[in-house]
Amino acid sequence: MVDSNSTFCDLPYSSTVAIATINAIFCVLGIIGNSLVLVTVYRTMELRILSNLYLVALAIADFLTSAIVQPLLIVMVIQESKGECNKTLETVFRSVGNFSAAASFLILLFITTERLLAVLKPILYKNFHPKRRFVVFISISVILPLIYTILRLAVSKKATSYFSGILLVFGYIYVVACYLIILLQLRRQSRKMKRSTSIPHGEDTRSTRHAEKAVTSTMALIIGIFTIMWGPFFYYRISQPSTNSGEGYNWVRTTAISNSALNFIVYALRMKRFQNAFKTTIVTVSIQCYERRAVLMLKTELIMYVLARMNLNLYVLDHQSQCCWRI
To answer: PROSITE patterns recorded for this chain (predicted)?
Structure first.
């Protein structure tokens, strides 16, 4: 859901430096952070649960934004400051940007749906084909953004601007309604547990409810940050549906796509398992890199030693042959 207008290619130098710098910082942060999420889930057995696979899918979409969209935006604003516009670069930027943003939004909607099922219908959530449900949700999160991106590029920028704005409004209403229902349900269950004096496996139930509450509050925080970061962008998208361009638009889309670098920070601060797994992954990878570097240096020194010995032997042989010729 990121656009540019090729007819507007004039940015002040100060804005260019600021926008490029901010995007560069969040680009590096997003690549490192989302890579850390992917590597951590892959390496940590206890994190390989179905609910975390939605976070992995979100991290992949965010990684695309940080690794491709933000570097392209940096190049584009630098070119615009020189009065130049590259249509090919703009098309790639719009394609990947629209796809990754739409995919992220749909994944957040499906995560909200999963949280609602987990709290309201825990038995249905666990038993009603969870793996198949995940495949269906992720397939939709890939296919619909592809269709949207094609329509955005080939059909009508104005129509898709209104469509994405309306989708955001209805999606946001849905998300807020779901989390209000979830919070009310968790509060109701908490009151029931306090009033009850004989609940089988009370500690397990209490622990499960606490975990659900923690995950729900974390996802609500992620969606809240998403709304704050993307809100100004969609205001521009709706108020200027045909001409998404200019200095202000570059600022709001910088804010929007920088959101991709923030989710892993929320995981680290709010989810203890991810926090511990991040630390373990960083330490393990650092040790492995150090060991590989040490082995590489040892091999290099060994090769240099062998080459030095070979050169010395060649020198001795050459010196001996010269002596023989003199005799």
So the answer is: G_PROTEIN_RECEP_F1_2 (PS50262)
